[in-house]
Specification:
about 700 residues, alpha+beta, 26 helices, about 35% helix
Length: about 700
């Protein structure tokens, strides 16, 4: 902030209604007012220690608005006047994260916490204590704030971890987000954190909405997420949003030369003006971690916002880098979940829902009850074995529990309150949606409808999955729209989605006649469908909704076949299907489900038809350039500086393919202590042999 006394700013704002006589004077006054307003925003919204009254603040702001209208060329890109009056945008822009935003693995017990520490030590091949930071896990919406040369430039949601949505227009309405960083700062840095609404603010907001006849929000997290996903930022500006910063994403290379630990980074966040988590602790043993856990558990009701656990992170950034990631989660961090909150209610009925794979899932229809600020009217009963084990019946008084966004479940039945007329519940033998037989295969806990895609529930759920955010991500095709279009006969299979626009133009259907559809919403839907025609192979495989084929497995399969054409040629009728069970994370059961999908000719025909409407790009492993890129590497013997899992991770990170067996296709054999037979075979085949030191130097050698 400039050295000009505050009263001069205020007097100029309150009494000097004339405009400056020169552009230099205007630019100077606008700069001083901008600095002053940012200073008072920080005092008011971050430190709860204002120096001036609201009236004085408003006077300063009115003066700056007047100057910006007269001299728009001098308006600062992060002006405090940008907090209000933004125009709505047409749609969210998709932004690819420069560094993936990962999820956290969960721990539920002291044993899980111990296993987490043990895994880290095994991976790093050390018995020494590892220092970690511990902090509450706030229940909000993850987002990333980008700064260049110290100036805020963009905000992006987590999305699917690879691609998020640009919410800059809404983040600019939040007064506790620093518009600029105090030097020193990296040339480029991404600050990650959690947007949330404090508990007291949430209750006040819901009270106001109820009094004005508006629908109340279910919980603070949904309210925060919904606020940041508004196209009109004026709506977000009316919500009491805050943000806690806790992590660094993409950052300039020189950052880690001075900032070595998570603890030091937290100090930088505070210096830059971010709100940070509290209380935090440094821990290095299971005993320390559990003591912190118990402290947080006892003070949880007094925290100003909802939390659903504790996050433990390895403190040293260089160790975080070594540990890397597994699947979609970092090895160096874990979320220790807090006990679920509970409530007592009555089961009015037991309903049966049918999923996309035909599984019949019993669901308890409850007398609505509040649990942790959320009104709950449904609870999963999992399967018929669970119902029998707990002897759950219609009319029972039950204790339900909820943790975070997890679907509530029945924890206990109060049998002493049960009616004498109560009867045990029996799962149906037929599908409630299509009337087909519902069977329970031997060795499985689930009962399944045998109707396949003739079952409307399965067909609809398949379509919902196909267009979902992690699959084709088609905006404008939510669950209600999919169900409506299916019931109208407009969409019976995925291919029908891509012919909607042609049928609209031909007059076969008319979206404009449907309630809630206008020209703009129809145009946006068709654009989103058109955008979804271009998709990566791994995303396409996941979108098919094959049983047991999740995101990670779909990626493994894509990596194996590399192209859709290869997949189609491999799984032709009467062909000998390959055995995928040897691929990492794909066992015999998953391979069986994958083969069964392709063995149905109508599935193959659907995929071939989709291939004519869509552009499915080949699988490309995104890695850094290195001498190992595209090479096959085998390790043998005992490694002294790397654990075997760390060595494998290094090969994959550098673009190579780790293997466990020597063949003519092997490029390098890395030999540790005691590696004899494989070395002999490598020499016979002419494979390049490296010792561990040579490998470390070679792998890190610049291209």
């Amino acid at each position: 902030m400039s050295d000009t006394p505050l009263f001069e700013h205020f007097n100029a704002a309150n009494h000097n209604t004339d405009l400056p006589t020169s552009k230099d004077q205007a630019a100077d006054e606008m700069q001083r007012l901008t600095e002053a307003l940012h200073h008072h925003n920080k005092l008011y919204h971050q430190q709860d220690d204002p120096e001036i009254s609201d009236a004085e603040y408003d006077a300063l702001k009115r003066r700056l608005i007047k100057l910006e209208e007269a001299f728009p060329e001098f308006k600062h890109p992060n002006s405090p006047t940008a907090l209000v009056g933004y125009q709505p945008i047409d749609a969210f822009e998709k932004v690819k994260h420069k560094r993936r935003m990962l999820s956290l693995a969960n721990a539920f017990s002291e044993d899980d916490v111990k296993d987490f520490l043990d895994r880290i030590q095994r991976f790093l091949k050390t018995d020494e204590a590892i220092e970690l930071t511990a902090e509450p896990k706030i229940d909000g919406l993850s987002c990333a704030l980008h700064y260049k040369n110290g100036q805020f430039v963009q905000a992006v949601t987590r999305g699917d971890g690879t691609v998020g949505e640009d919410i800059t227009h809404n983040i600019l309405t939040m007064k506790d987000i620093p518009r600029s960083l105090t030097a020193p700062f990296p040339e480029e840095i991404e600050i990650r954190g959690e947007a949330y609404i404090a508990t007291e603010d949430f209750l006040d907001m819901n009270k106001e909405r109820e009094e004005s006849g508006k629908k109340i929000f279910a919980n603070p997290r949904n309210a925060a997420a919904g606020s940041l996903r508004q196209l009109d930022p004026n709506i977000a500006a009316q919500r009491p949003l805050k943000m806690i910063a806790y992590a660094v994403g993409h950052v300039s290379d020189d950052f880690y030369q001075t900032i070595k630990t998570q603890s030091h980074f937290r100090e930088e966040l505070e210096r830059w003006g971010f709100r940070v988590n509290a209380p935090v602790a440094t821990v290095s043993s299971v005993k320390d971690m559990m003591e912190y856990y118990e402290d947080i558990l006892s003070t949880r009701p007094d925290l100003p916002h909802e939390i659903d656990g504790i996050v433990y992170k390895v403190n040293q950034f260089d160790l975080q880098e070594r540990l890397g990631n597994v699947s979609n989660a970092p090895r160096w961090a874990i979320a220790h979940k807090l006990p679920a909150e509970k409530a007592v209610t009555v089961i009015k009925d037991i309903l049966i829902s049918v999923g996309r794979t035909g599984v019949l899932t019993p669901v308890a229809d409850l007398e609505p009850v509040g649990v942790g600020g959320v009104i709950v009217s449904r609870a999963t009963l999992h399967n018929e074995d669970e119902i029998q084990r707990k002897d759950i019946r219609v009319g029972d008084t039950v204790i339900i529990q909820r943790a975070g966004d997890v679907i509530p479940q029945v924890l206990e039945v109060k049998t002493e309150l049960r009616s004498q007329n109560s009867v045990p519940f029996k799962m149906p033998d037929t599908c409630p949606e299509c009337g087909s037989h519902a069977i329970r295969p031997e060795g499985e806990v689930a009962r399944r409808c045998t109707g396949g895609l003739i079952c409307p529930a399965q067909a609809i759920e398949h379509l919902k999955h196909f267009v979902s955010r992690k699959a084709l991500n088609i905006d404008g095709m939510g669950d209600r729209i999919i169900t409506d279009f299916y019931n109208k006969g407009w969409i019976k299979n995925p291919l029908d989605i891509f012919t909607l626009e042609k049928r609209q133009e031909a007059g076969e259907i008319n979206l404009l006649e449907q309630n809630g559809w206008g020209e703009k919403s129809v145009e946006n839907l068709f654009k989103s469908i058109d955008d979804a025609k271009s998709v990566r192979l791994e995303t396409f495989i996941y979108a098919l909704g094959i049983r047991q084929i999740g995101e990670v497995t779909a990626k493994k399969i894509a990596q194996e076949f590399t192209s859709l054409d290869t997949l189609i040629l491999t799984y032709q009728p009467n062909a000998a299907f390959p055995d995928l069970s040897n691929i990492d994370s794909i066992g015999p059961e998953i391979d069986k489900d994958f083969q069964e999908f392709w063995a149905k000719e109508h599935n193959l025909e659907m995929i071939q038809e989709l291939a004519t409407e869509m552009s499915v790009s080949d699988y490309v492993l995104e890695v850094i350039d290195s001498p190992i890129k595209g090479k096959t590497v085998v390790f043998t013997g005992t490694l002294t500086t790397l654990s075997r899992s760390e060595a494998k991770e290094m090969v994959e990170r550098l673009g190579g393919k780790p293997s466990s067996s020597i063949s003519s296709k092997t490029d390098y054999l890395v030999v540790g202590e005691g590696g004899g037979k494989k070395r002999q075979k490598a020499e016979e085949l002419g494979v390049k042999v490296l010792n561990e030191d040579e490998w470390m130097g070679f792998a890190k050698k610049p291209v």
